[in-house]
Write a structure and sequence with these properties.
By secondary structure, the chain is low in regular secondary structure. The chain contains 3 helices and 2 strands; from the N terminus they run H-H-H-E-E. The protein has a two-stranded parallel sheet.
Length: 141
Amino acid sequence: MARWVLFLGVEPPGGVGGVCAPQLPTNGEAGKADSTSDSYPAGSLKAVHVTGQLNEVKEYNNKLCLSCHKRDEINAANEDYQGIKGFNPHKAHLEAGDCTTCHSVDSTSTLTCNSCHDAPLPEGWQSAEQGSGPIHSLKQG
């Protein structure tokens, strides 16, 4: 049986409407649209969406992403990210807005916050290259 899953596994109360496709059961089939798609990194958009769901997409812009993944639900799911009080990568103060700044379509996604911070990485992600400025630690304590 298919179920609806939104960005980062958040499902809104009462289900989902709109153009989202149902998520495949978690049996390892997601991201396997053809013989080459099993090579998509775990954190890429093609790996976490339903097989073939993104095949016809020509432009990966915020309008496309937000047609299924509602901004308030994304923000709520990431409050105090990884237990870091007050940190939410989806309410970033720099370069906030473009989903593909961090979320890669078909390669490894990059936590851009880590060009200045030391936030823990989601599974399958890489850290942005650190800039020349100081690192602003997010670690508690």
